[in-house]
Amino acid sequence: MWTEILAGAEGGRTSLSGVRTGLSWVVVAACAALVGLLAYGLAARGSDTSIDEALLRGERPAAPARELPVLGEDGRSASLADYRGKVVVLNVWASWCDPCVDELPLLQKTQERIQAQGATLLGVNTKDFTDEALAMERRFKLTFPSLRDRDGTFVREYGTTAYPETFVIDRQGRVAAKRRGPVDAAWLDETLPAIIRETA
Fold it and tell me: What is the Cα–Cα distance from 99 to 181, expressed in whole angstroms?
């Protein structure tokens, strides 16, 4: 009889422990969900000023600009702001990024086509070795300049986390279009003509 009572007591303790364990997991899960909701809320609140969200609303946000070294031109720096009045196709690339390299010939052809229309390509070479980036410029005979964003802090202002990415900046220095991922001829043909026809 005492054995049965003790066994029942033991069973009761085990059951209570199980309830406590279950409650602990519920509390942990609830806290995690709350943190997730708060993080989502903060991200959602911050994203309404992002380039992506602004473009979705039909707005053209001011394009971030910063003075950066020009690739292959020691001692010289430049900024997107220097191109105000021109349409700029801003392309983020690196020599170690295969999709970036694959689109360089198309970007060079685009430069040759648009440069007489008050438009230009402007590369932003990021997180790259100078010698390897210059080798790509020589290999594809690139005639458009590239700025050097050595640590990737500048392109993060565009929300860039992967490469390549391309932004079309209108004559007033605003982001008019973006492509997160490689561009193709169809996207360029669809996007550029109308923006190039706009006046400053």
Answer: 8
